[in-house]
Amino acid sequence: MVLSQEEFDVVRSITPTLLFHGIPVIDISNPDSKSCLVKACEDFGFFKVINHGIPTQLISNLESQAIKFFSLPLCEKEKSGPPNPFGYGNKSIGRNGDISWLEYLLLTTGPEFDYEKLASVSAPTPENFRGAVNDYVSAVKKMACRILELLAEGLSIDEKNVFSKLVMDKQSDSVFRLNHYPPSPDKNLIGFGEHTDPQIISVLRSNNTSGLQISLREYGWFSVPPDQDSFFINVGDSLQVMTNGRFKSVKHRVLANSDKSRVSMIYFGGPPLNEKIAPLPSLLMEGEDSSLYKEFTWFEYKKSAYESRLADNRLCLFEKF
Ligand code: GA4
């Protein structure tokens, strides 16, 4: 991958960072994990999941398909682009001029993506790629729903599936992303610029390569030690709204690694487009309107998100005060 001087100046970060050893580690095979999950979402909007039960083979199968794709010559990969809304992208993220040191594939979790576009990738057939994505996504989605159900219970909400039903819905607007960060000429390059995820929940898995960082508000950026056997979970903007700000949508970014290539896979669980997003009445104080956000549909939020730059605060448009 090559950067012009202008692009290089934009993607170079000089902020020093510390390794964060305090990431909550949650064993989701333990039903008592509910309160730790709630606390992790309140304190950081970020945690690591162990004992998730997702077979290693599902992960390694998809990772090798992804590596095969990203190893192709650029002109071949570009046949699967541009990513509007789905397909191969290189350096450029979104529609408003954000650039970073990575290439990626953005896919829907529904049937809309034409895997024939990836024909050159997935020898002997595109079905290999589609199969690997589908198997992985359905396992990860199930895990995401389990987490969302534990969270609802932890918040003492009667309707246990109040969050999970949104991502389980057939019309759920969920996205799947495969990112490849090639080794970089400089260890301070931004691999994926700072942002929060707009959806409800994001599930990230990466190979054993550092780079992911989270922002702990007034304390600044912290590096997350890599762990290829666990999943990292982010609270998204929509879950922050539904919990009336009790859970925090975490700001995160990725720095490129100077000597290793990083491959990550992220499932973004989103609601159906026509779903109304607003603080849950049971989480509001009785008698007065303590809701911090105006109600919006996921379609409205997504539309305004696509008009924003990566680092923008997208929720402020929907705040009441
Ligand atoms: C961030 C989370 C997901 O990767 C994503 C991104 C999307 C894109 O890459 O097209 C966005 C970004 C993400 C938020 C603001 C807009 C949209 C790029 C961008 C500048 C797929 C998503 O859903 O929102």
Model description:
Residues 171-271 form the Fe2OG dioxygenase domain. Pathway: Hormone biosynthesis; Plant hormone biosynthesis; gibberellin biosynthesis. The relative contact order is 0.17. The strands form three sheets. Strands 2-3-11-8-13-6-5-4 form an eight-stranded mixed β-sheet. Strands 1-10-9-12-7 form a five-stranded mixed β-sheet, with no helix packed on it. With 321 residues, the chain is α+β, with helices and mostly antiparallel strands. It has helices spanning 5-11, 34-43, 56-70, 74-77, 126-154, 164-168, 237-242, 298-306; strands at residues 18-19, 25-27, 46-50, 87-93, 98-108, 175-181, 190-195, 201-206, 212-215, 221-223, 231-235, 252-255, 262-269, 276-277, 296-297. The protein contains eight helices and 15 strands. A hairpin with a 5-residue loop joins strand 9 and strand 10 (221-223). The protein is globular, with a radius of gyration of 19 Å. The mean pLDDT is 91. Helix 3 packs across helix 5 (126-154).
Succession of helices and strands: HEEHEHHEEHHEEEEEEHEEEEH
Q: Rough shape? A: globular
Task: Please state roughly what percent of the residues sit in beta strands, choosing from under 5%, 5-15%, 15-25%, 25-35%, 35-45% or over 45%.
Answer: 15-25%
Mean pLDDT reading: 91
Radius of gyration (Å)? 19 Å
Keywords: Dioxygenase, Iron, Metal-binding, Oxidoreductase
Catalytic activity: gibberellin A1 + 2-oxoglutarate + O2 = gibberellin A8 + succinate + CO2
Family: Belongs to the iron/ascorbate-dependent oxidoreductase family. GA2OX subfamily.
Pathway: Hormone biosynthesis; Plant hormone biosynthesis; gibberellin biosynthesis
